[in-house]
From TrEMBL:
CDD domains: PBP2_CrgA_like. The keyword Transcription regulation applies. InterPro entries: LysR-type_TF_proteobact-type, LysR_HTH_N, LysR_subst-bd, WH-like_DNA-bd_sf, WH_DNA-bd_sf. Keywords: DNA-binding, Transcription, Transcription regulation. PANTHER family: HTH-TYPE TRANSCRIPTIONAL REGULATOR, HTH-TYPE TRANSCRIPTIONAL REGULATOR SINR-RELATED. It comes from the Bacteria. Belongs to the LysR transcriptional regulatory family. This is LysR family transcriptional regulator. It comes from Microbulbifer elongatus.
Length: 302
């Protein structure tokens, strides 16, 4: 099969529009439509249901999409591996990472990988806003959640969930909420990103819990656009936070923080290593991906 056809199929499924997917790949809508029909003929399956108002992926298309993503990723990894001469990793990685995760977990790991590969250099940018790869001069970014731009390449590093946390001192002074509604009586530390205040906390039952899902609009006397500040306020006993378990893993393990309402958490969220295009997937990027996958798995297991 033509890999461009497969890439077009993935873009169209993500965007929900043949015209917009065609624009991303510098194709005319007619050429894109012909490519998708060619792919359907090869597969002997209908991938999309088309109408004048809507494009919808079929059940067969959903099944094929999963394998298609894997195939394109494997092909890209193979292409990148050809540039790895003699197993030697060198050059510069310009990496953007969330403020909290970067300062408190990644820094030590980056020191470790650089000691293993002395000719590798890393330029680290910390911040919680989504990176503009061109303006921010970064090669790759570590980010939570799904990608808004399907043209970018994403490698999953870990899956975690947001959990409710507080310090033992806060619990001693104000008590622990007994249910989700009781959060309305507590100071809930809030994070703001790109002008959007995350004051609506969607809580779902943890595995094995009989609690029901709830959506709570909480209040706070403290708001910040830096996720690490939320962590620091939580440790200082200023309130309850709702943050990724991965971000708070060290503090939860050593008892600096404790889970509040442990039977409730968020839906699973993915942590991805994101590249602007396939051309940026170098042997150094693949090395970093594999190294971080192992480290995050160990961190969550502890």
């Amino acid at each position: 099969m033509n890999t461009d056809d497969l890439q077009l199929f993935v873009h169209t499924a993500d965007i929900g529009s043949i015209t917009r997917a065609a624009q991303q790949m510098d194709l005319t809508p007619a050429a894109a439509s012909a490519a998708l029909k060619r792919l359907e003929k090869q597969l002997q399956a209908q991938l999309f249901i088309r109408s004048t108002r809507q494009l919808r992926i079929t059940e067969e298309g959903e099944r094929f999409l999963m394998y298609c993503r894997k195939a394109l990723t494997v092909l890209e990894e193979g292409r990148a591996s050809l540039g790895n001469s003699g197993g030697k990793i060198a050059g510069e990685l310009r990496l953007s990472a969330p403020s909290d995760l970067g300062r408190n977990i990644l820094l030590g790991w980056l020191d470790e990988i650089m000691s293993l590969h002395p000719e590798l250099s890393i330029s680290l940018t910390l911040g919680d806003s989504l990176s503009d790869f061109y303006l921010d001069r970064v090669d790759l970014a570590i980010r939570y959640g799904n990608l808004a731009d399907s043209s970018r390449i994403a490698f999953k590093l870990a899956t975690t969930e947001r959990v409710l946390c507080a310090s033992p001192d806060y619990i001693a002074r104000f008590g622990a909420p007994e249910n989700a509604q009781a959060l309305l009586q507590h100071n809930c530390l809030l994070f703001q990103l790109s002008g959007r205040l995350n004051d609506i906390w969607e809580l779902v039952p943890a595995k094995g819990s009989e609690h029901k899902a709830e959506k709570i609009r909480v209040t706070s006397n403290r708001t910040t656009n830096d996720a690490d500040v939320v962590r620091r306020w939580t440790i200082a006993g200023k309130g309850i936070s709702f943050k990724a378990r991965l971000d708070m893993s060290n503090e939860l393990r050593n008892g600096t923080l404790v889970r509040v309402l442990p039977e409730l958490q968020s839906h699973p969220i993915e942590l991805n290593l994101v590249c602007p295009s396939r051309r940026q997937v170098t042997p150094a990027v693949l090395l970093l991906r594999d190294f971080l996958r192992q480290k995050f798995a160990q961190q969550l297991a502890q």
